[in-house]
Amino acid sequence: MAAALPPFGWWPLAVVGVGLLAWAIDGQGWRARAKTGLAFGLGWMVPGFWWMTEFSAPGALVSTLLVAMLNAGAEALVTPGRWAALGLPAALVGVEALRGAWPFGGVPVALLAQTQSGSPLAQIARLGGSLTIAAAVAAGGVSLAGVVRRHWWRAGISAAVAVAVTVAGLAVAPPAPGAALSVALVQGGGERGTRAIDSSTKVVFDAHLAAAAGVPTGTVLTLLPEDVVKLESDVTSSSEGDQLAQLARALDSTVVVGLVQDVSATRFRNFVKAWSPAGAPGPEYTKNQRVPYGEWIPFRSMIERVADVGAVPRDATVGHGPGVLDTDAGRLGVVISYEVFFPRRARDAVKAGGEVLLVPTNASSYSNAQMPSLELGAARLRAIETGRWVAQAAPTGFSAFVDPDGRVHQHSDLGPRQVETATIDRRTGLTLYTRLGDGPFVVGAVLLLGLAWLLTLADRRRAAPAGSTGQQT
User: In angstroms, how far apart are the furthest CA atoms of the chain?
Assistant: First the structure.
């Protein structure tokens, strides 16, 4: 399972991983299933959550254990016997859904769906989002286990379901393209593995202003990354705000940039703000979903007793409402950095009228390619789910353009100063997933798990008379 995730991306191994899980729990009691689920969760999440150790090793340990226990509980709920073919996919979908909200407001990173960001199964997201992808992978795994066990009907039906849903996803087109939009992504460059607390605010800002000088004439929208500007007061009354207004006028372009502003001695605000081509400050949006142990410390009083939390001395505030900016370049949907892992944030932005999705992010704190790769993989899923172009800008990469089919048209390297440009299109139509959201699929998973248990109990009742006479069942 871990090898199927970005940056490795060996997506067929996810089906193998679920197949091995189905094989291992077949015929086991609930305690054995729970132990297997715990081992499965640890083997998946220790590498999957390794990025979190860059901020807090205890935080990574707590998060890994919580999600592994979640998997243990899910496998314990899977029905024994033949109806596990229904129960296991339902349980795995339930875990994926719950991880979007728990623990710590949701840590939907290293999900089953994210193993498929580069596979044909990703197109299912247009119909039912990430939960449907998880269900299809689970069905494929159950089918594989059925072949090994020679449960041919189970294998055939599960495989047919996975194939049918995939074909349906490939057959449905994204919303029709609208007006063209020329976009530039500004990547200031710098050394990776540098935490915000250890970096010079002026150096980062100056690097992006220098990089922005390479934005081509005629660019309608210019996107700078998250955390490019750090302020103690309102940006409109600061020298940085004046420089951004001057940049917008010089480029004759709408400029959207990520900022951090002090709120108090213990709080800060992470937000994006737009400037019009005339240099006038425009709308802004404050980040809703915070990175646990990166932008706030859950159980801070406990964690700081056993670990240094100096890298995150203050907690981010929580924004409200959909991420959308009304600008001269159009109505822009915004998901800031970590929010790209939350389908509901992108869906809310599009339902509020977002014609493209902007992802200003900052992954420069991470020394390796794991988090940038996971983030780009999540951006690909959000593009398919919403039927929108995604434009992602990061200080040290990956800055990238992703089309509504989830294809990465271009992306920067990690580290150097670059400007990526492309002409994309604005779209207004809604996919089926954007209309429905996750609700119907969560309800479906619960009903499917309940059906599996009803069928299992019915089998036991039918077998009871034969068992009472000593006959084999």
Answer: 90
Q: What is the pLDDT of residue 263?
A: 92
Do residues 138 and 121 lie in contact, with contact meaning Cβ atoms separated by under 8 Å?
no
Instruction: Point out which residues pair with 269 in neighbouring strands.
Output: 261
- Strand pairing partners for 182? 423
The Cα–Cα gap between 285 and 258 comes to 10
Distance, in Å, from the CA atom of 232 to the CA atom of 46, rounded to the nearest integer, reads 37
Residue 239: what residue type?
A: S
Question: Please, are residues 418 and 211 in contact by the beta-carbon 8 Å criterion?
Answer: yes
Beta carbons of 334 and 272 less than 8 angstroms apart? yes
Query: Which residues make beta-bridge pairs with 359?
Result: 392
Dihedrals phi, psi of 84, to nearest 5 degrees: -60, -20
CA 44 to chain centre: 16
What is residue 467's predicted lDDT score, i.e. its pLDDT? 52
**Tokens 């049918």 appear where?**
164
Q: Helix axis angle, 239-251 relative to 201-212, nearest 10°?
A: 10
235 CA to centre of own chain: 30
Residue 53, CB-side half-sphere exposure with 13 Å CA sphere: 12
Between helices 125-149 and 12-25, what is the axis angle to 10°? Answer: 50
Look at residues 66, 68, 65, 75 and name the one whose alpha carbon lies nearest to residue 30. 75
* Strand blocks (E) in 249-385: 254-262, 267-275, 281-286, 315-316, 324-327, 330-334, 356-360
Q: How much is the pTM?
A: 0.94
pLDDT digits (tens, 9 = 90+) for 297-354: 888 888 888 877 777 889 999 999 999 999 999 999 999 999 999 999 999 999 999 9
Q: What are phi and psi of 281, to 5 degrees?
A: -65, 140
- Which residue from 357, 332, 183 is spatially nearest to 253, judged by alpha carbons? 183
Q: Percent helix, strand, coil in the chain (nearest 5)?
A: 50, 15, 35
The 8-class DSSP code of residue 470 comes to T
pLDDT of residue 307: 79
Report helix, strand or coil for 261: strand
Segment (H or E) for 97: helix 84-99
For each successive 10 residues of the chain (473 residues), what is the average pLDDT?
Answer: 95 97 94 97 96 86 95 95 93 96 93 95 95 95 93 90 88 93 97 72 93 96 96 92 97 98 93 98 97 88 80 91 97 98 98 98 91 97 98 96 96 95 97 96 96 94 68 44
CA–CA separation, 393 and 420 (whole Å):
9
Query: What is the C-alpha end-to-end distance of the chain, expressed in Å?
Result: 36
- How many other CB atoms are found less than 10 A from the CB of residue 219? 20
